[in-house]
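Justification of resources, computational component.

The compute hours requested in this renewal are based largely on the per-chain cost of generating structure records like the one below. Each record pairs the submitted sequence with a full structure-token output. That output is archived, and it is also reused by downstream analysis tasks.
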Amino acid sequence: MIPLIIGGVTLAVVGYAIKEVCEEEGCPWDSKTSTFEKTEEAETVMNSKKAKDFHKFKKNIYKVSMQEYQEFLEKHNLQNDDITTDLKLEKQKLSDEMITDEIESYINQISNTLEILSYNLSLGIKMMQNEKSLEDEVVQKLNSYANSIYNLSHLKLFDQWSRVNQVEILSVLVKAMGEATQKDTIHVDLDAA
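The structure output for this chain reads:
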């Protein structure tokens, strides 16, 4: 009989404690998201490796390029009003399920183009490092590389309704690829000792 009394008192105390918590913070079973939705969210977070890798790659290229470009602008007292060289890059939440073959091909093209543009920008800046006066054509070329890097890095693959921004992706990508594939003449002064 004593174990039943102890069990009843314990049950009453636990019930009272749950009642107090529910009155103060709300009951856990009354939450608006169901267990299924929580599981789905957890899977989305776990299944976003491709999206995370892409964002990490973009962020790294963007940060290095914009920092180098900003230093170039400051050194030569120049300004580019088309972009800001802040190092923040907004992360678009994607799950791997959203990355279809079409999106993956866009990601690959964006990544490849960013690498080329970043290399071209860096090379162009290094070539102009010791120049006292810069030609407008060279500055415009470096600005166009930086603008394309900026636009590709900030490009959203999906709109707010989770539809593919196909027209925007293609227009930004085509313009950036045009910048990446243009060949410039490189002048090498062999007389300099």
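The CA atoms of residues 67 and 85 lie 7 Å apart. The chain is about 65% helix and 0% strand.
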